[in-house]
Amino acid sequence: MVNKTRRISTVGSVAAVLLLAAGCGSSDNGAARTTNSVQPAGAGKALGGAYDTGYGAGGYGAGAAGAGSGSDLGSGSGKAASAGQLSVRDIASVGGVVTDSAGMALYRFDKDTAQPPKSNCDGDCATVWPAVPADDASAAAGIDAALIGSVDRTDGSKQLTLGGWPVYRYAKDTKAGEAKGEGVGGTWHALAPDGKKAVDKKQKSDGNAGSGNGMEMGAGAAGMNMKSGAELSVADNEKLGKILVDGQWRTLYRFDKDSAWPMKFGCLGACLDTWKPAAAIDKAKAEGISGKLVGSVKRPDGSEQLTIDCWPVYTFTGDTEPGQANGHNKQGLWFAVTAEGKKVPPTA
């Protein structure tokens, strides 16, 4: 009798857990459902040997792998070489990026704060994203020296800030001109000269250089009529039909190796260098799609990723202009997403 009672109790506990996570079910059964944030199944477990602490393959990078002898990133101590003279370098698809004296891209972290300056990247995070010391930093043409400052880290060292934002390098950038850290985890971004995100300034610049409609029309971008402030909308792609795009008119994709139920991630580690998790949005700022299909999921690094019909969605670094959909049917695994939350067929 005691054993029977325990079995009933155990079943009840399991059922309760499933009900808590039941906001997202099988994504292709056509049923409407809410989109609760769900911790991905398998979080904290080894995934193909790449996942470790949550700061590794899950979005802060793939450990310190790639930090070769020429990268000046230290030896896992979380500290980096001094920046020297900061300059601005144009990097394709990212824009004008602040680099150190060796030409290495510098980054900011959305979970930090600029007013007041505060770093929230320590421990394993700081191994993958080494903090740039504040000493010996100077500004070249294009960077206002008044924006350069410092912030005290938890270990007592002083970290360089730009426009108030703590400054980092990325361990997987191994040569000048790379910006592999752009968009990692949806929270890491290459720095613009004023401390803002370089990619945002590029998008704004491209839009101002367009044809008077607020954006530069890329291949397949015809029919993109998003209202100002929309963070998710539907675009008429000349080849794929009506597909979802983010607030910067970038095509959104889903990955067949992810799972909507149970919600799991198949894109980790080096995958995130090419496919950037789309940041979660306010569903009130979505247009052309039912709010019931818009949700979010917590990635292993703690960042919130946008989900459509319970599937995590991404942008593709191979799309360099608004409206492009070069990632569709990549490897037979990546697909643009329809306004109904389904994947666009491979033959579209």
From TrEMBL:
Superkingdom of this protein's organism: Bacteria
S-adenosyl-L-methionine found in the keyword field: no
Keyword Nucleotidyltransferase: no
Name of the protein in its database record: Lipoprotein
A Pfam family matched in the record: Lipoprotein_15
Location of region: Disordered: 192-216
Keywords associated with the record: Lipoprotein, Signal
Family matches, as InterPro entries: Lipoprotein_repeat, SCO0930-like
Record's compositionally biased regions (Basic and acidic residues): 194-205
UniProt xrefs under PANTHER family: BLL4220 PROTEIN
Extent of the signal sequence: 1-31
GO biological process, one term: alkane catabolic process
Organism from which the protein derives: Streptomyces roseus
